[in-house]
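User: My notes are a mess, but here's the protein and magnesium ion's SMILES. Can you give me a structure?
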Amino acid sequence: MIFDWQFAWDTLPKLMAALKVTVAATVLGMAVALALGLALALARRSRLQWLSWSTAGFIEFVRSTPLLVQIYFLFYILPGLGIELSAFATGVVALGLHYAAYCSEVYRAGFDGIPRGQWEAASALNLSRYHTIGRIIIPQAIPPVVPALGNYLVAMFKDTPMLSAITVLELLQTGKVVGAETFRYLEPLTLVGALFLVLSLISAAGIRGLERRLQKWVAQ
Amino acid sequence: MNPIIRLRGVHKAYGELAVLRGIDLEVPAGQTVSVIGPSGSGKSTLLRLLMTLDRPDQGVLEIDGESPWTMEKNGSQQPADERHLRQVRGKVGMVFQHFNLFPHMSALHNVMEALLRVLRLPRTEAEARARERLSAVGLADKADAYPAHLSGGQKQRVAIARALAMQPKVMLFDEITSALDPELVGGILALLHEMSSKRTMTMVIVTHHMRFAESCSDRVVFFDEGVIVEDGAPKAIFHEPRHERTRRFVDAILGPEA
Ligand SMILES: Nc1ncnc2c1ncn2[C@@H]1O[C@H](COP(=O)(O)OP(=O)(O)OP(=O)(O)O)[C@@H](O)[C@H]1O
Ligand SMILES: [Mg+2]
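Assistant: No problem, the inputs look usable. Here's the predicted complex:
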């Protein structure tokens, strides 16, 4: 089998359109994961025992079950609960929930890295708990964990093909469809792989750039 | 007049370790008290309780006549809510051995932060007060510097300015010169001396500088193994201690010169 460059070129527009779906799912999923992950990390630290424990249980549960199971679960169970979401939105929620559990552990490490003296200085200045966390702790806890969060961004990006299980026409699924229609799999699947590679490299570079800027800012 | 600090029978343990074992102490407003004693005797623990960073296991602790951890509600004493705790806490300020500046904020913003968020001063007013406090500690030109770019002595000055800007009635200093290079110690002690001579604030100073304690405080408290062994005028503690333990401690540090 010879790689047909012309054919590859012709399928590119279709794949680029699907890439948009993949990127959108990643960006939105990551936004959910970052925000929810922070909320979970804070709830985990809460002085309310029931909240802290149930959050810990939730995180453990999500981390020890496969993403694919969670995707199916949400896809088939949510409508029964009266929550009607598109396949794409369900996928975003599933990715967001799954990675929120991982991100919360990263945030937790960030919080644990803050010396006790910072909390004490904030208390001695009579800052409220809200301001202590929002103004003193979070701004110091997050910059050091940006690389770890970035790794999860790339990991989530690579997990998006699982959304094809619930009929989301993302990149890989589109490549397969093209292959099935034309009986040529080599070109579309190669392109799918190449597109994943390129975007992963771009985001890794972006994260490193962000990291450098944060380091400069922290060193000030 | 009521004392601004009142402790009666205060106990504090960490696990099995009884750190404070029945502390009675009254400090009238405006007094400067030096606390001395061997390492591990509970001096920092006492200050942490006064700052309400931690709560006593037992006994009475009152700041300006109020207990931070309990409040009167419907005619009986109830556990205090957050509001009450912060209302009492606002009367006290503290400077730490390791400065504990916020590393992500400039000197100016370290001082301004609580003025904005706690006292809710308008921005211009907060900035004016912060700059004024920074110049009072000799750091007018370092307002925009970040802690990482300041020397230890400069950091401690920022920390002092930050605590003073809140205008607490009581200021606590926990070995604030211990982490400094020797040549920077004198300047910080001079600053403390200047503050205490104004007599507008009550100051509790944990220190290893006996000469400073002697010359700058109204009163010296000698701490050992979680109890106050001796409490009196600096002269008495340093030159005519009533207790053998006090004498041994003072001699060990000053040398048996007196
Ligand atoms: N949060 C804590 N948990 C457990 N033990 C503690 C805690 N804080 C203090 N301690 C212990 O309590 C004892 C008294 O500590 P504290 O810091 O009050 O002594 P200190 O008089 O300030 O000593 P130093 O002069 O060394 O600062 C020490 O043995 C210390 O290890
Ligand atoms: Mg100490």
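Residues B 43-44, 174-175 surround magnesium ion (ligand 2) (CB under 6 Å).
User: Great, I'll file this with my notes.
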